[in-house]
Structures are given as structure tokens and as C-alpha cells.
């Protein structure tokens, strides 16, 4: 799916791709990692265990109150600017056919696609084979 | 992992390129994103059910009802695309600039990019046409038919500019011409004329044309014949005109309309 991007990345276009990432928005940042529905089913209430920004990518670790399991999601840092995401914040996961929307205080923070959602999202130039 | 993150991030960058409207800094709400992804999912289910290997796909990205048009933007959707099942191949204008590029995108990106109505239309051509279209796409012959100079209202029988629906139409011509090999836009347009393609004619007076030309980089009229332009008749390739052409040439083509749940 991502051959073109990988090729660009290895050809010094990493910065270009990253720059593109910080400029984009679909209203809510989309996690790069897909989570299983099982995690959300078992988790019960979610809370934010950690938030670590590393350049243009931020890793957010979520913890299920019921299961104690942790799951980390990675999103473009810019997508989280001004968001209420912080350690200890309680999160609700709203399920859809394509993934889970992480909501806090009625405001959507991150979309975590499932495999179906991920399969619907890719983008590259046709000339980049 | 870094590559994976870049993949996803670049995937969402589709919202940066639009089929003929500026890249407004207009956030798509989570509700709209959810609807668009549901429409993408439903469209994929319909494509699976159709048994097609390739089809035409169009969305209703802008309100064109004042022109009597329903759908705004069209591309091809190919089941066995090497970059992913049911990948859309289409021309996108770069954020209201005067240029465009051909992109391969997931159905989610296709609908997240630009929606006015949560609706899509799929047209499944005849099995023979599907085979010919697949051969064109697999050989990468669709890319050289692209002209990067973009005009939203490009004249259908000139090669100075190209709009997104025109590129799709010219790829259809390349695949559909049985008696002659088509390798260029000129040849594709010649074949389309011969095959009886009828563009949409918009009534655009001089003031409207001037206003559009001055305020929009992606609108030009200097490719239109003077006798049409100066009588306010602007002919261009629209989704509706392509659908009419395909359905007239291929009575067996199936139209499937999809709306978000």
C-alpha cells in the first residue's frame, strides 16, 4: 500500500512527507496504528497513560480501566495542538464500521481506524509506482 | 514503523488536493469524516457485489444544480490495483492552482476530499471494456494522457488544459477505441468526436468569465473557440456528459447509485 511513500522516504523525501503531514487535517487526526475492536471492547473506560511528542509525530498511550491493557497510537503532532489530551484524561471510544473515535468531553480527539478503515485510506501519485 | 506512520499521514494528505476547488482551511468535522468513510465502505461493498474489475466512479463534491448537474468529479476505480484493492485513479487539481496530478487513492480519501452530498455513482462497463480499461491501467498508459495545466472548464477538443473528468474521458477513449491505437490526447479527442461525445454547454456571460478568470487560477477560457466563447457558450467535460456518453455507447453498462447510511 505504501510502496511509493517508502520509496520517497528512502530518497530523502522524509521531510517533505512529514511536512505534508503537519499541514493536513480531516477534522481529527488519524492514528497511524490500527487497533483491534477487542482492545476497545475489553478496555472499558480509557485514560491517557502518556503523551510523548517526538518531532512531528506524537505517541499517545491509552490504558483500559477494566482490562489494564495499554495501546499506543501515533498521530501527527500538529493534529493535537490545542487538544485536551493529557496524562490522566478520561477518554471514550465511539465505535463505527471503520474504527473508533476517541472522544473527551464531547470533543473528538483522534480517529483510530480498524483494518477496514485503514484499507480505505491511502494516497500517492500515480507516477510513483 | 516510521514508514507506516508516513504512509498513514500521507494518506490523509489527500485532503490537500481537490478536484477544482481551493484547499480551504476548513476542517472536516468528525461527523462528516465518519459519513465519508461509511460512504466509502458502502461503495466498496457495492463494487464487490457488482463483480466488476474496474468501474467509473463519481462523487457529488460541489453544488452544481444551478447548471443542471448532479455529480462533480469522476475517476476510475480498479479492484486489483497494486496499491490496494479498489483504488481510485483520478486527476486532482492542486488546491485551486493552475496545475493537476494523477493520484491513486483509497475510497476513503476519495470521499473525504470533497463532498457536498453523501452520494456516489458507479458505472460498471461491459466485460470487454473492463478488460480493455484494466489493460490500460496495468500498463500505466493512463498517465501520459495527463496534462498538468488545469482548467475547471477546459474545452473538450483542445489540449492546452485538462479538467479531471476530461482525463477520465480520454482514458475511456484510449480503452474504447477498437479500430485505432490511441497514444495521445489529440487522438483521444479525435476519437471522442467521431464517437459522438457531446459535452455540457454552460451559459457564461463575459462578466462571469472575467470574474472567474481574475479570481481563480484554475479557470481559463482561452482554449475555447472564439465563436463559442464570445457567444457565452462554454463547452466542457462534466460527469453527467461522460455518463450519458458511456451509457449510450454501452447499453449494457450498469449504473449503481450509493448513498451514505
What is the topological layout?
The complex is a heterodimer of chains A (129) and B (261).
Chain A (H helix, E strand, L loop, with lengths): L2 H20 L14 H7 L2 E9 L2 E8 L5 E7 L13 E7 L2 E6 L2 E7 L1 H5 L3 E3 L4
Antiparallel strand pairs in A: 1-2, 1-4, 2-3, 4-5, 5-6
Chain B lengths: L1 H11 L17 H21 L3 E7 L12 E6 L8 E7 L6 E6 L1 H6 L4 E8 L2 H12 L25 H13 L8 H10 L5 E4 L2 H10 L10 H4 L3 E4 L2 H11 L4 E6 L2
Antiparallel strand pairs in B: 1-2, 1-5, 2-3, 3-4, 5-8, 6-7
Outline the structure in words.
The complex is a heterodimer of chains A (129) and B (261). The longest helix of chain A has 20 residues, at 3-22. Chain A has a six-stranded antiparallel beta sheet with strand order 3-2-1-4-5-6. Chain A is 25% helix and 36% strand. By secondary structure, chain A is of the alpha+beta class. Chain A has helices at 3-22, 37-43, 115-119, and strands at 46-54, 57-64, 70-76, 90-96, 99-104, 107-113, 123-125. Chain A starts with a helix and ends with a strand. In chain A, a hairpin with a 5-residue loop joins strand 2 (57-64) and strand 3 (70-76). Chain A has one domain: OB fold (Dihydrolipoamide Acetyltransferase, E2P), CATH 2.40.50. Chain B has one domain (2-259). In chain B, helix 4 (127-138) crosses helix 5 (164-176) and helix 5 (164-176) packs across helix 6. The longest helix of chain B has 21 residues, at 30-50. In chain B, a hairpin with an 8-residue loop joins strand 2 and strand 3 (87-93). A six-stranded antiparallel beta sheet of chain B has the order 4-3-2-1-5-8, sandwiched between helices. In chain B, strands 6-7 form a two-stranded antiparallel ribbon. Chain B starts with a helix and ends with a strand. Chain B is of the alpha+beta class and 261 residues long. Classes of the chains: A alpha+beta (129), B alpha+beta (261). Chains A and B meet through helix 1, helix 3 and strand 7 of A and helix 1, helix 2, strand 4 and helix 3 of B. Strand 7 (123-125) of chain A pairs antiparallel with strand 4 of chain B.
